[in-house]
Amino acid sequence: MIRSVLWILLCLSAMGPFVKHCFVFGDVVTCSDIVPMRHRNDVISIKDFGGISDGSTLNTQAFREAIYRIKHLKRRGGTLLYIPPGVYLTESFSLTSHMTLYLAKGAVIRATQQNTWSWPLIAPLPSYGRGRELPGWRYRSLIHGDGVHDVIITGGENGTIDGQGAMWWNMWRQKTLKFTRPNLIEFMNSKNIIISNVMFLNSPFWNIHPVYCSNVVIRYVTILAPADSPNTDGIDPDSSSNVCIEDSYISTGDDLVAVKSGWDEYGIAYGRKSSGITIRRISGSSPFAGIAIGSEVSGGVENVLAEHIGLFNMGIGIHIKSNIGRGGFIKNITVSDVYIENAVKGIRMTGAAGDHPDDKFNPNALTVVKGITFRNIWGVKVQQPGSIQGLSNSPFTGICLSNINLYGVPGSQTSPLWKCSDVSGAARLVNPSPCAELASTYGSGSCMTSF
Ligand SMILES: *[C@@H]1O[C@H](CO)[C@@H](O)[C@H](O)[C@H]1NC(C)=O
Ligand SMILES: *[C@@H]1O[C@H](CO)[C@@H](O)[C@H](O)[C@H]1NC(C)=O
C-alpha cells in the first residue's frame, strides 16, 4: 500500500509526460496470480526447535530440525515456520516443499561470518560448467531450495535476511576466495515459489537467484547492498520461465534485475532458456544497470516485459549484453515507461561484453538479437543517450525506439550522440536524434507493430 502511494507520488513528481500511466487506482496490473498465496493451518515456531534470537548463538541446527519436521510430517496444506522478532544467526540451510518461512516484524535471519572452510559447497550449475566467478564448485546459498515446490518466503514489514556480505566482498577484493561466493537465496529446479514482503541486506554475491525454475513471484521486496559491493545483483532469473517481479526497491552494487540463461559451451549444451519474465514497478540505484539481459544468454532469453521502472544514480539504465561464443538468442524484449535520473548511459546494447568460463568457447557461436522495443523512456542528467553495437556476423535486427527523451547534464560541453553499428530497426520521437541506421528506416518494416 505504502509502496503504491510512493509510486504514484513518484509518477506525479517525476514522470510528468507519463502521467496517464500513473493512474492505476482501479485494477493494478499484476502477474502475481501465476502463484496463488496460500494460507497454512499448521504453524511451528523456530523457538520450538531451540532457536535463540540473541544474534550470536548459531541456529543452523534449529532451522534444519524445523524443516526436517515439515518435510517428514507432511501436514495437509503445508506448514508455516514462524520466526519471531530477534536476530537469528545461522549457517546455510535448505528449504523443503509445502512450507512458508515467515519472518515477523523485527525478525532477522543473519548469515554467520564464520570461516568459509565449513560453508557447504555444491556442484557447479550445468549451464555454467563451473562457479560463476571461479572454476570448480561453489558455496551454497544462505537459504537454498533444490527441487522444491509450493514454497513461500514472506513476513511482516521489515522481516530481514542479512547476508553480512562484507567478509566475502573483502575476500573478493583481496583475491583470497577459493570458490564462487554464495547467493543469499537460490532456488534450483523448483516451481511455484513466492518471495514477498521481506528485506534483503548485504548479500555476499547475487541476492535472489531462481535457476531452472518456473512460476516464481517476487514482489514487495527491498534489496539493499552498498554501491561498491562486488557482484551484488538484485534478482537474476536464470534459465527460468514465468517469473513475475513487481513492486520492489533494489539498490545494490551491480545490476538490479538481470535475466540470464547460462554461458558459452555449457549454456549452449544445456539449452534452457529464460522466457515469460515480467519486471514491473521496480525502482532503485546502481553503478551498473537497472534492467539487464545477459550477458549469460546461451540458453536464450525471450518474451521479457519490463515496465514502469524508476532508476536513479545509475551506470546504465537498460543494458542488453552478450559476448562472442555465447550463442543463444535475445528475442521479443519490451522495455517501456522508464524514468532515468542521473546516469552515465541511458541504453546500451552490445554483442561483445564480459568474460568467459574458459577458452573452449566456439568463436562462431553468436547470439541472435532481434525484436527489441524501447518505448516511453524519459531521462534527465544522462551523460550519453545510448549505444547499440551488434556484431558484423550477427547484426541486431528489429530494434525499435519510440518516444525516447534522454536529456544530458545541463551545462555540459559534450554533445550527446547515439552510437550504433551493425543494427537495423526504426526510431520515432527520439531525442536527441538517434543514429542514422535507425532514423533512416523510420516507419518501415519490423517495427510497425511495436509503435
Ligand atoms: C524493524 O522494526 C522494528 C520495529 O519498528 C525495529 O525495532 C527494528 O530495528 C527494525 N529492524 C530492522 C532490521 O530494520
Ligand atoms: C512477446 O512477449 C510478450 C511478453 O512480453 C508476450 O506477451 C508475447 O506473446 C510475446 N510474443 C510472441 C510473438 O511470442
UniProtKB/TrEMBL annotation:
One of its GO terms (biological process) is carbohydrate metabolic process. The keyword Phosphoprotein does not apply. Keywords: Glycosidase, Hydrolase, Signal. It comes from the Eukaryota. Residues 1-21 form the signal peptide. GO terms for molecular function: polygalacturonase activity. PANTHER family: PECTIN LYASE-LIKE SUPERFAMILY PROTEIN, PECTIN LYASE-RELATED. Belongs to the glycosyl hydrolase 28 family. This is Glycoside hydrolase. It comes from Macleaya cordata.
